[in-house]
UniProtKB/TrEMBL annotation:
Alphabetical list of InterPro entries matching this protein: BhsA/McbA_stress_biofilm_assoc, Dodecin-like, YdgH-like_sf, YdgH/BhsA/McbA-like_dom
Source superkingdom: Bacteria
Species whose genome carries this gene: Gilliamella apis
Keyword Signal in annotation: yes
Name of the protein: YdgH/BhsA/McbA-like domain-containing protein
UniProtKB keywords: Signal
Alphabetical list of PANTHER family matching this protein: OUTER MEMBRANE PROTEIN-RELATED-RELATED, PROTEIN YDGH
Domain YdgH/BhsA/McbA-like: 34-91, 121-175
């Protein structure tokens, strides 16, 4: 879903060839591995993502940079057609980024992992408990106790939901030497799109930009997938009796159903999806993915919309009617007089 002011690029825009300029765009991972020596800002009437990437490449080259990383793009408050783009610059011999020492909390002898660390690692089990936990400390203690009993080195609490006065918590637990998950890039091109099929046919680096079957979403865990994979049951801690019974059931399941096979399904990048009343659906592309694809058409519409969801719904509805598989909100322009906005959307097959 887009932001009304387009204030932040959630994932880095793909590398766009800049044959006329030396400065090349970095991925987020590449940028995080190096130290920037300078930050710059450019302004201009950029109507597509590739326009401001090319302009930034030229500006970075003029500053003597070998590469750049775009961090943010805003629409000027004084001129709705003017974009302001911010980037960090890097020398060809840029020193490596200084790694920050991890400072992790520990409960029951088990480390609490942040999401940024946990999402990169493959859990060896999932812990789901239900009970009355008045504070976050109680939640961490309860999860850590279960994790410790299974020999875990770290845990990550992924979700919590209220059930009456109780909470149901889902957490993933990890071994010290947990293998890394195969993550899908946030800016991966949908493999069922025209751009995806063309990139696969081209092969090489182009094909590497397409969604890969069997790779995980980089932004979230799939609780149902892992619960099925590990034959996991919810541990009920609302009473001592049910706790004992549930624990026994979990133990029985693990010993008698170890031969159950789990089909590993591709976990595609999670995109905002618009669903119409008749069941038709369409997904919204982020800036980074859209920059890798070529739109077959562009539409615009005007009206008064209060929330991002309203904008995305109206954009998705029009994109579906135009025969698109995907859409991207390229720009949102606010009227100089009055509360209405004009939304520009790119359509993709």
């Amino acid at each position: 879903m887009t932001s009304l002011k387009k204030t932040f690029i959630a994932a880095t825009i793909a590398l766009i060839p800049c044959s006329s300029f030396a400065a090349q765009q970095l991925t987020e991972e590449q940028a995080n591995s190096m130290q920037s020596y300078k930050s710059i800002t450019i302004r201009g009437a950029f109507y597509t993502d590739s326009d401001y990437v090319m302009a930034m490449s030229k500006a970075a080259d003029n500053e003597g940079a070998a590469s750049f990383y775009i961090t943010t793009t805003n629409i000027s408050p004084s001129n709705d057609t003017l974009r302001i783009v911010y980037a960090k610059l890097y020398k060809s011999d840029a020193p490596k980024a200084v790694e920050k020492a991890e400072s992790l909390r520990k409960f029951e002898g088990v480390y609490e992992y942040p999401k940024s660390k946990a999402v990169r690692l493959e859990p060896f089990n999932i812990v789901r408990i239900r009970g009355y936990f008045p504070t976050d400390y109680d939640i961490n203690q309860a999860i850590a106790k279960e994790a410790s009993a299974q020999g875990a080195y770290g845990f990550y609490i992924d979700s919590r939901s209220e059930i009456g006065s109780n909470l149901q918590i889902a957490a993933y637990i990890f071994k010290k030497d947990a293998p890394e998950r195969k993550l899908q890039p946030e800016d991966a091109i949908p493999y069922d799109s025209e751009a995806g099929q063309l990139a696969l046919a081209k092969g090489g680096d182009a094909a590497m930009q397409v969604e890969k079957p069997g790779y995980y979403s980089p932004s979230a865990f799939n609780e149902k997938y892992y619960a099925d994979k590990f034959n996991n049951k919810v541990i009920d801690k609302t009473t001592t009796t049910t706790t004992t019974a549930t624990t026994a059931k979990v133990a029985t399941s693990s010993s008698t159903e170890t031969t159950t096979s789990v089909v590993t399904e591709p976990q595609r990048v999670t995109r905002y999806t618009v669903t119409l009343p008749d069941g038709r659906k369409i997904q919204e592309l982020n800036d980074a993915t859209a920059a890798k694809m070529v739109a077959f058409d562009t539409l615009k519409f005007r009206g008064y919309y209060v929330t991002d969801q309203e904008i995305s719904y109206q954009a998705g509805k029009r994109a579906i009617e135009a025969g698109a598989k995907y859409y991207h909100i390229a720009r949102v322009a606010h009227d100089t007089k009055g509360p209405n906005i004009t939304v520009f959307i790119d359509l993709y097959r």
